[in-house]
Amino acid sequence: MTLSAFIDLLRRDQGLRHRFAQNPRAVLRDFAVELSPHYDVPERLTAAQLERLLADWSASTNDSSPGFNKLDRAPPAPAVLYGPPPGPATPRWLSRWRRLFGRR
Amino acid sequence: MRMPGAAPRHSLYDGDPRKLARWRTSAHAPPGIAVWELTLRCDLGCRHCGSRAGRPRPRELSTAEALDLARALGKLGVKEVALIGGEFYLRDDWDRIAAEVTRCGMLCSVVTGARQLTPARVERARRAGVGKISISIDGLAQTHDQLRGSAGSWRAAIDAARRVAASGIDLSVNSQINRLTMPELPAIADLLVDIGARSWMVILTAAMGRAADAPALMLQPYHLLHLFPLLAAIKRERLDPNGIAFFPGNNVGYFGPLAEALRYGAERGHAWSGCAAGEATLGIEADGSIKGCPSLPSADYVRGNVRDRPLADIAAALAREHDASSVKTSPVETSPVKTSPVETWGFCGRCPFAHRCRGGCTWTSHVLFGRPGNNPLCHFRALRFAAAGIGETLEPIAPAPGQPFDHGRYRIVEAPLGDLLANDPVVARTAASSAFGISAGAPSLWSPDELADALRPGAQ
Question: Fewest 10 Å CB contacts: which of B96, B140, B170, B178?
Answer without folding.
Answer: B96
